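Below is how a single chain appears once it has passed through the pipeline. First comes the sequence as given, then the structure the pipeline wrote out for it. We keep one example in the README because the format questions we get most often are answered faster by looking than by reading.
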Amino acid sequence: MKKRMLALTMVMGCTFMFPTLSYAEENTDAVVESETDSDAEEDSNVGTLHGVWVIDQAVDEFGDKAEGENPVLKTPITGDFSNTATSKAKLSGVLFVQKVSQKFVSAFRLMEYGSSPATYLSSEEDEIILKTKVGDEVKSFDLFGSAPNGDLYLGMLNEDGNWLADTLCSGTDIKCVIYIGNSKYNFTISGNGFAEACEECGYNEVVSKNKLSASAATLYEYMKNHEEEVLDNYYQHEYYKDADHVINIAATEESGVPYVTIYEDYYYDQDDKKQSSIIFLYEAESSVQFYSQTGSEEMDGGAKMVFEPATFKEDTNLDQYYDLEGNPKDATETVVEYWNTHNAALLDALADYLSTTDCGLTLEDFGFAE
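Resulting structure:
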């Protein structure tokens, strides 16, 4: 426990935000009210406004803008709180969201009666839990902070903050309850404008990768329960097969990170020569690959191209490929036609497979543009 708190203290002290709060401390409703104010974006205390979310510059401990730090997204918290001394008293505050490295971290600042920070002994002695509800789905997360009244952090030590950001990016509201000892804090976080704020901050790539990773995990769990395990922890669906042509969809995980592959093999001359197209959907680096192989070991050419799913159709046309030594080779018209035609066919295969399952996924869930 002490090691975890030490790690948290070091991370909080070195990497997270010191956001400007003057507008929210004076009036937590200011963000919402300023949505209809034509002068809102000219107010340096408010920053750029999207729905109920404000983009603000991170500042250092002296209140000066921190150059090079990622912007902070923030929105007001309004609700009620109850404890042994009161019931449904006024709750206000602010939720901050910032990209830290390649993940999202959130910080909850809770103000009892609109002016007094919520207090606690420590985030270990007073177990601090965030419960969320979206539709019928309820989730529970641990929060951490510095006693006696520090902000409460989600995602500082793990990936939990990514779920909150992904959900808000879909425009969905999140019902929240935070438990601190005998105190209970109720409020709802609105997704109105969050996606637009992320886009302006350049956070879309992180959101896209988080969404892809979550979708890959969902499909991996589905295939683990419904498809054949052809290798250790490698589950495969045979989408199409004839004498010389195979399309397979598979899911597995590497170092605890699930990913999906869709691949096609064409065989020639009694399996002696093979051409393959592969799409890897993986949070670290999604890619498409093409290669031709003669015999069991010798490969006469191949290519790998990294892509963002949303621009797959535009970014994956092949005009050259590489031999095994990495030397560029001009692609023949036949190779180009094969690449451009068959990688599109693999997307169709994935879409068709998803439509036959009850896992609730579509190509859009993997980040591909419709």
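The radius of gyration is 25 Å.

See the next section for the split statistics.
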